Batch of 2 targets.
Target 1
Amino acid sequence: MKKKVAFYTLGCKLNFSETSTIARSFTNEGFDRVEFNEVADIYVINTCSVTENADKRFKSIVKQAQKVNPDAFVAAVGCYAQLKPQELADVNGVDLVLGATEKFNLTSYINELLDNPDRNKGAGVVHSCEIENADFYVGSYSIGDRTRAFLKVQDGCDYKCTYCTIPLARGISRSDTMESVIKNAKEIAAQNIKEIVLTGVNIGDYGKGEFGNKKHEHTFLDLVKELDRVEGIERLRISSIEPNLLKNETIDLVSKSRAFVPHFHIPLQSGNNEILKKMKRRYMKELYVDRVSKIKEVMPHACIGVDVIVGFPGESDEHFLETYNFLNTLDISYLHVFTYSERDNTDAAVMEGVVAKKVRAKRSKMLRGLSAKKRRAFYESQLGSTRTVLFESENKEGYIHGFTENYVKVKTPWNPDLVNTLHDVELTKIDEDGTVRFEFETLLVH
């Protein structure tokens, strides 16, 4: 009987790409992959450490696995596993914890433990390197999990933002080779996947002059140009990119691109320069205005998403209102709002001016309300236009959903023939749930 393995991913697109790559290594060794709520011999949890909530969810996910199969082997990998390996190993039911450099050898560690009849079930064996040793690159991409694929092009970060643990969890900034990225993109295209999302920790840093002991020949702009030439990929989407690394040349290239879509997600974190300095961000809000203006100048229909943190130490009511008003006046499309949570071993965790959690929650609610207003205004601005929709694979309450190239979410009555297909759609009406709804007569084959 083949052993069965199941995966659960917390956190970002990068984690999803790495989970998928790890899952393929199991399949290559003869394991059957099953859903996490099914009976499996091995459960793998890819962890996140960005927020306190992601930390807390880990225990409940372990319990979920144990409920399905109390005798199963449970392994933890990912950022939280690198930062606090012993803490995870001490969770009841966890058998193995692997850090940043070990996670891609998960099958070897598991086979070794499974072959040991004397192993102590639930003992929580830890294999975790010092993060300074995470100086090599492992390429990854997700496939088969979604209509679109997440393609990892970069890992690690050299920035020292005072609230962030990612450099401690993933190490220095390093990039995949151009040849490897293009090879992976072609493999994805061969699987009839229509859209690729580029992902990494700091993808605008791709191909920086040096990392570790290796020199890199290419820039992010070079990468974008080469990917745009890969046949078989209908859409390419840039995930989160720092405003100081999003250059005019890249924006111009996207505006004229064959495959890159007019959608950018650009972290802001605060609309107040004093707070940006305390965060050790590498720009002031004026640069952010410049980036948004440039995008809208060459792509008026572009969708722009924004990351923002509320409740950072020292953020007064005045600072927050400045951020709120700044975002309110910007020509952006939606917000991802993060409530600041203290992370061990970060500079921000010991700063003065701690904001009460009730105040953080109130500010978060205000910005989520602003996000809904911004998204609605953006959707309304798109009504009357014809956009191309890529349909997803899920039947949600009798509807099939999809996204336009500029990230407008649409729905229409469920039709399995539409799954993973591209169609031109006239955007005519916003439904009660905030999505754009249309009927089949407005559907044009792409």
Target 2
Amino acid sequence: MLKDFNLTQITPPLLSWFSENARVLPWREEPTPYRVWVSEIMLQQTRVEAVKPYFERFTTTLPDIQSLAECEEEKLLKLWEGLGYYNRVRNMQIAAKTIMAEYNGKLPDDYQELMKLKGIGHYTAGAIASIAYGKPVPAVDGNVLRVITRVSADTSDIMKDSVKREIEHALAEIIPKEHASAFNQALMELGAKICIPNGEPLCHQCPWGTFCEARKQNIWKELPVKKKTLKRKIEERTVFVIRKENSIVLNKRPKKGLLAGLYEFPNIKGYLTEEKALCWIKEQKLRPLKITPLQDAKHIFSHIEWHMKGYMVWIDELSEENSDFLFIELEESQQNYPIPAAFSAYTKYMNMKLGNERFEHT
């Protein structure tokens, strides 16, 4: 258990290991407060390799807090397209506006002040304060929870806030004041490269191999302990890829709720047969010429799964006077209309590319 483990012994070998094994990452090369903030928000629920090109595009287009605060929402969402969890970037913009208004355009260096900003919690505040400003405060994410519970054989449920706070307090006691940035990044790096989340840890490469309790007791599979999450709700939907030549039909989602404010292919709850799908198209004041079934698809959100049946529908005319939908040229949709990854299985039928895919061959 953590309380019975000598946590001070982890620091020297950890820092030595990190100095020789740290990955070269764009946000580490120039760890300004803004760049650290952007990278940490992007890295939530997203792999490092996927984040790199997003980070470069985002910080090139919006190089500072002022440009983020002033960015038009649809441009902002288009920069984020494919990363998912769009409230993350919306909250960043709200925080950026607060920083411009109340902090003279500068991210505060104080942990508690950072916590007051929209979308910044314990971990992100700790990461910014320690990595960008060198403040000796912990930054406890999933990687850190995993490596600390394993090295100490702590069987507490890491999904409990009380357990996270306990680990934060324990690390705050041992974090080296002169090496806070390296210490926190090293813990994260150890979890990302060695004590990995899915699969057997690379114990023979670990700097803690001689005193890791999970290794000694061979219980790494049981750690960390997580309570069972609620089963996701399954929602069946029918998706319509409606087109005429090089134009497509899109719908803008409501300002609140799932995928708020993003653009989507028209879709409805439930599975429709081909006959009923044609009836639905006609009800939308569109005149179908041809309908073709598309592949089934699935997209997983935090608490819900969409199971989708798709149809390609050709129509004889595009007239905004006859429908509530948006009629968009394909090229324009790729440049200006953020479409969530939930529909990526169907964008290919229009040769549309989302997020990173748009830049792979340019």
